[in-house]
Specification:
Blueprint: H1 4-15, H2 25-33, H3 38-41, E1 45-48, E2 58-61, E3 68-70, E4 82-84, H4 86-96, E5 107-111, E6 118-119, E7 134-135, E8 141-145, E9 165-167, E10 175-179
Parallel strand pairs: 1-3
Antiparallel strand pairs: 1-2, 3-4, 4-5, 5-8, 6-7, 8-10, 9-10
């Protein structure tokens, strides 16, 4: 199985060109910390994306609460920092390796600056089509994994109603997307 850092870089090449993220360590930490509430980020591990294919993720700051926060991805101009708990880090590794994913506990991931554009139903789509429910990507959100997919029955499957919805339905990567207010990074202390 490929390492998470290797598969992240491979995915970047698949969806666009990879360029090393520029900026100081403090700027990267500030970006990562803008992804979630301070109650999460203040004790989270902060990691940076690899600068080259096959490179390793770099720990910018060790944490203690089980969350890993990342600055915006280089391949997306840095507009999508995220903070993920352990189940979500395993989800990401499974997604990057195109492997089955199952969790035995709830998982939470924050993207309070929004995310990259993508399909609501196809986890590997790279551009909009007439039938892949393309999302603009600018929706700040909390992502929720549940161990039992039957818990998702009856939830909306598109964001049109303004509340939570089920994303990537009928795939191993199914989860709840819950819109949240955009996090104000100017309130984040280094």
């Amino acid at each position: 199985m490929k390492s998470l850092s290797t598969t992240i870089v491979i995915c970047f090449f698949a969806i666009g060109s990879l360029s090393a993220q520029t900026g100081s360590k403090q700027a990267k930490i500030k970006s990562a910390m803008s992804s979630a509430p301070a109650s999460i980020t203040e004790s989270a591990t902060i990691m940076d994306w690899p600068a080259e294919e096959g490179g390793e993720m770099v720990v910018l700051r060790k944490g203690t609460n089980g969350f890993t926060c990342l600055p915006g991805m280089p391949a997306t101009s840095g507009n999508d920092p995220m903070c993920l708990d352990e189940p979500w880090m395993k989800w990401m590794e499974a997604w990057m390796n195109e492997e089955e994913f199952k969790t035995d506990k709830m998982g939470f991931g924050y993207m309070l600056q929004g995310g990259s554009p993508g399909s609501n139903i196809d986890p590997y789509a790279t551009e909009p089509t007439d039938d892949n429910e393309w999302l603009s990507g600018n929706i700040p959100h909390l992502m929720i994994l549940v161990p039992d997919e039957s818990a998702l029955q009856g939830l909306p499957v598109t964001p049109g109603q303004g509340g939570p919805w089920v994303m990537f339905r009928n795939t191993p990567y199914v989860h709840i997307m819950a819109p949240m207010p955009k996090h104000n990074p100017s309130l984040v202390e280094n």
